[in-house]
Amino acid sequence: DVRLVESGGGMVQPGGSLRLSCTASGVTISSYLMSWVRNAPGKGPERVSRINSNGDVVYYLDSVKGRFTMSRDNAKNTLYLQMDSLRPEDTALYYCSSEALGLSGQGTLVTVSS
C-alpha cells in the first residue's frame, strides 16, 4: 500500500507554531522532489514549499518565507514543515505531494485563530 500520511496539524493562536510531518510507506521518497501544498477554504491549492532529494529547499511561497522551514529525513522517509509566526491566513488543509510519483496525502488541518 503506497501512501503519504501527514500529521501534526491542529488549532493554534496567531503567532504560534506547529510542526507538520509527512511519512511515506510502500515507497522510498528519498530521490524525489517533494512539496507541501495547502488548500484553504474557498481557494484553490497552492504550493507552500518544495525540497529536492539533497534536502535543499528550492521554493517557498512568498507569504511564508522567513516563517516556514521545510526539511526531510531520508533515513526516516519523512518530510517536515516547521511553521512559526502563524497567521489566520495560514489556515488550510496541508498535504505533502510528489508530482513524479503522482501521489498526495490526505492532509492535516491547520487552524490559526484567537
Give the SSE map.
Blueprint: E1 3-7, E2 10-12, E3 18-25, E4 34-39, E5 45-51, E6 57-60, E7 68-73, E8 78-83, E9 92-98, E10 103-104, E11 108-112
Parallel strand pairs: 2-11
Antiparallel strand pairs: 1-3, 3-8, 4-5, 4-9, 5-6, 7-8, 9-10, 9-11
Structural class: mainly beta
Overall morphology: globular
Strand elements, count: 11
Radius of gyration: 13 Å
The H-and-E topology, N to C, reads as EEEEEEEEEEE
The chain-level mean pLDDT equals 97
**Biggest pleated sheet:** 7 strands, mixed
Beta-strand content = over 45%
Q: What gap, in angstroms, lies between the N and C termini? A: 39 Å
> Uncertain regions: pLDDT < 50 for 5+ in a row?
none
Q: Report helical residue fraction.
A: under 10%
Number of helices: 0
Give an overview in words:
The chain has strands at about 5, 10, 20-25, 35-40, 45-50, 55-60, 70-75, 80-85, 90-100, 105, 110. It has about 110 residues and is mainly β.
Question: Which key features would you list for this structure?
Answer:
114 residues; mainly beta; seven-stranded mixed β-sheet; four-stranded antiparallel β-sheet; 0% helix; 52% strand
Q: Quick summary of this structure?
A:
The protein has 114 residues and is mainly β. 0% of the residues lie in helices and 52% in strands. The strands form two sheets. Strands 2, 4, 5, 6, 9, 10 and 11 form a seven-stranded mixed sheet that branches. Strands 1-3-8-7 form a four-stranded antiparallel sheet, with no helix packed on it.
